[in-house]
Write a structure and sequence with these properties.
heterodimer, A: 120 residues, mainly alpha, B: 236 residues, globular
Amino acid sequence: MQLVAGILLLAAILAFSEWVKISAGWAVPAPVLAIVILVMILLARGAVPSGLRRVSAVLLRHMALFFIPALVAMIGLLDVLQANIWPLLLIIIVSTIVPLWLTAFIFDRLAPRLDDEGRQ
Amino acid sequence: MSLLSLPDVPGWEGLFWLAATLALYGFFLRLRRHFNDSGLLQPLLWVSALLIAVLLIGDIPLSSYQLGGNWMVVILGLSTVSIGVPIYDNLPIIRQAVGAFFVAMLLGSVSAVGTALVMAYFLQLDAMIFATLATKSITSPLAFGVSNEIGGLAALAMGVVIITGNFAVLIGPKLFAMTGISDIRAQGLAYGVAAHGIGTAEAMRRSALMGSFAGLSMGLNGVLTSLVLPVAFSLS
């Protein structure tokens, strides 16, 4: 029952977010809105329900699995990609390495240190 | 028509692809564990490449695969929402570094869009690809909508976003080791900004703290970019 309640909560929040997005015509994506709503519910409740904790642990550990169909769908894009493959690859390589390093570097310099237990 | 009509189930075709995807994913999880968690053995990348190869060689339409695959897209939505759980758990740690978080996220985000657009300009790519690249650093479902607003090609945006995410996850561990950045908060934040959903999935697998920084920066970065880009393109 707790597991069902956990899945229900996630699905209900996502459905509500999609509805808000469509009826308000927002640029904000529904999943992002849904994350915000979930965090607010948890803050109000002061704890994570055990069913939700178990469901989310499984979903998050295997998130990469659920991305596979999106990658397989790229099969329909092979033509467009092929036509511009070298400039696109060059751009992707540079514009991935730069922000990946820069973001981590700036945070590393500015943020207070963490000790081994994840506390400051 | 029978009195008892059941909804359509995906049938053997959809179930076959669902099973094949799960089996390959499980196999690559084991393979990666066997090779000490090697960064090159990303199950997402290899399983997708193998499935694409099988579909191409067998001349099988994508719609056949999607009979099973679409089930997983629904679950992807649920797992995205559940990023809220580790964010809630780690709120005290996030709060303590909130200034550094925003500065790093904003500059990182500007550098992601900026390097892509400057290079596209000098390589003289056409306007459609130019607009598509601007959406490069947003979560995949989000890149779709924004790219349409500014005149890019939604499908191409999705492709670029996915390649970017995979590339970032492949080089991330090496890059952070080479540059001596060991703070997992910094790494998570960077994955969220530069590698969106796929980066967040990887960060979440590594640790809940890294994952919550990734999820938060992915979300905030995506919202900011989706609000700023259409305005910027309408001005130009």
